[in-house]
Amino acid sequence: MIRWSDALADYQREGLPHVLVSVINTEGSVPRNAGSKMIVAPEHAIDTIGGGNLEQHAIEFSRQLLAEGNACQRIEKIPLAAAMGQCCGGHATLLFECFVNTSTQVWLFGAGHVGKALSLILSELPVHLHWVDTREGFLPQQNEPNRTPYRVQDPTEVFQKIPKQAVILIMTHCHAQDYAICTAALAQQHEGFLGLIGSKTKAARFRHRLQRAGFSSEQIHGIECPIGIKGTGGKRPMEVAVSIASRLIEVYSAQANPLPLNINTGDLHQLTDTLNETAHDTQ
User: Fold this and answer.
1) Contact, 246 vs 232, CB < 8 A?
2) What letter would DSSP give residue 229?
3) Are residues 95 and 61 in contact, defined by beta-carbon separation less than 8 angstroms?
4) Is there a contact between 90 and 32 (Cβ–Cβ < 8 Å)?
5) I want to staple 18 with a disulfide (CB 3.0 to 4.6 A). Which of 11, 177, 203, 266 is the partner?
6) Which domains does the chain have, with CATH numbers?
7) Residues 94-133: pLDDT tens digits?
């Protein structure tokens, strides 16, 4: 059996939606002790909190949280006999921690000087980098924990993989490719941040072409070009990359959601007592 801790590391690293279910307190006879955990994903459940109706309820409730699409926490105190029909008859308190989009998905088109400099910065940020280029030998040969390279013939072919909320950064070696990626993003009705490297002249020309192609002004102005923090100066690849990374940090910081904890007063007192007892036992 795969351990919940191994699965949690994988899901967090890949930024995949999941719920961590923890038994945080027990009273009487229960399937497993406090501290037992499991991971629930849309298609899989990993490890166990004891099986039976309690675990089935935990899986169903977790998938309900995932379907709602919001990062959150919930606590439930469950009487096993009365609510779950389990003959053990005790009470189990479960903590549900729902993680949705745990890391920002960044799709970077272009592995030139700025792209390579930017990838170094992104490797230290809470993002998963999907890196696309058409040229042989420009991308790394292997995946890394937070980086997936795509060497393709046509950069637009990866759009079927790109979530609508992902960040798209366009900086290929070819203006024709940049334009094709812009049109693919607008045709997809992309909802996430869309940034294009270039000068004000390039931005004006692209907007004119996109308008002639039939896209609305609202769609066209959804493309940020030039991209980066305004007024930073510097044209070296790393200087440009720092400006773009700073803008990206602004984007994902603005999108970050707190994890509201929905818990009633009685459960809060119980949780506090449990944590105090745990702290006392470890002293």
Assistant:
1) yes
2) -
3) no
4) no
5) 11
6) 4-102 (no CATH), 104-255 (3.40.50.720)
7) 999 998 866 788 999 999 999 999 999 999 998 889 999 9
